[in-house]
Amino acid sequence: MRTLASKFFLELLELSVRKIIMETLLERRTAHCRMALRFLACMKPASTTKRPPCVGAFFLPALRRETNRPRVETRKISVMDIRGRTAVVTGSNSGIGLGIARQLANVGVNLILNSFTESPDDQELADGLAREFGISARYIRADMSRPEDCRALVAEAAACDILVNNAGIQHVAPIEAFPVERWNSIIAINLSAAFHTTAAALPGMRDAGWGRIVNIASVHGVRASPYKSAYIAAKHGIIGLTKTVALETAEDPVTCNAICPGYVLTPLVEAQIPGQMDVHGMDRESVVREVMLARQPSKRFATVEQVGGTTVFLCSEAAAQITGTAINLDGGWTAR
Ligand code: NAD
């Protein structure tokens, strides 16, 4: 009886180990599988070649059913592989746009840089990125305040797998003193431009069977501040546009998302620090902590690299089911 019980126990143990092997093979966990095989080899007496029928065989059909159950394939997805795609980044000869372009180039994405300026420096900037990252890069001048320029930018780019709507301007004034032309240009550049470029880029993305649209909104797309009426209206608007495009493309292999940075340390923001120091009679550190980052709990600026890295992630295979979202990159501002 004792021998029968120990035989039964050993058979059961062996079957469990076999089951582990099957599962680890199915899930490609080769290190676990090798360990289980080694254990099995230790259990077998060296001389045994043919084993008599055993008690454990009684459980075999049930175990087979268990291991033959259909499983979810664990395919390795390439988290950041967007090499060889082409990105059009609006407003990308400085600041956040340039930071995004650099992070995309770093993972092998070809670039179309853009701004409204026409200077040899712009193509030189593109050439420099091409040399540095081994990609192709071109500068196309287009004024994002003009609908026809927005659409021409996409047409001239020829390929536009990734569209980053980044160009933006700001003006601060109380609403009754807010200049009408500033309101119009902020709405045109920060909001309407994304409508025109998206409309122009979508047919090509659908034909190519792949596309990513990333709109650079702002924490001001979800929170308001006084004296920034046009900027806040435009940034709230671009989040609405993002959601609508996401729904219209939901069944296509195209995604559309927004990124909402808090304060990002760009040359433009850096240049405001001395003025703020004078106005408030504070040193640099106090002005940054208590004035500029008063509502950013991390008390640190976001960086252009972080905005660029988030853009790369949204373009990756890992983010293929992320669409219609607005990702806050604001050091906790919106957590309040
Ligand atoms: P920036 O001034 O450094 O860059 C703006 C870019 O847009 C430049 O390349 C400029 O040439 C381009 N641009 C301006 N007008 C244009 C036009 N008519 N046509 C084409 N290009 C034009 O500013 P930034 O801080 O890098 O801002 C980039 C985006 O990020 C903007 O949409 C801004 O609202 C958003 N944002 C910035 C911050 C921040 O703290 N810096 C925070 C949240 C969101």
Describe the structure.
Strand 1, helix 4 and strand 2 form a beta-alpha-beta unit. This protein has 336 residues and is α/β, with parallel strands linked by helices. It starts with a helix and ends in a 7-residue tail after the last strand. The chain contains 11 helices and 7 strands. About 8% of the residues have low confidence. Strands 3-2-1-4-5-6-7 form a 7-stranded parallel β-sheet, with helices on both faces. The relative contact order is 0.11. It folds into 2 domains: 67 residues; 213 residues, NAD(P)-binding Rossmann-like Domain (Rossmann fold, 3-Layer(aba) Sandwich). 50% of the residues lie in helices and 11% in strands. The site of nicotinamide-adenine-dinucleotide has 27 residues, from helix 4, helix 7 and helix 9.
Keywords:
single chain; 336 residues; alpha/beta; Rossmann fold; 7-stranded parallel sheet; 11 helices; 50% helix; globular; binds nicotinamide-adenine-dinucleotide
Layout of secondary structure:
Elements: H1 2-26, H2 30-43, H3 60-68, E1 86-89, H4 95-106, E2 110-115, H5 120-133, E3 137-141, H6 147-157, E4 162-165, H7 180-208, E5 211-216, H8 229-248, E6 254-261, H9 267-280, H10 284-292, H11 304-315, E7 326-329
Helix pairs in contact: 1-2, 1-3, 4-11, 6-7, 7-8, 9-10
Bound molecules: nicotinamide-adenine-dinucleotide.
Residues 90-97, 115-116, 143-145, 166-169, 189-190, 216, 218, 261, 263-264, 266, 268-269 line the site of nicotinamide-adenine-dinucleotide.
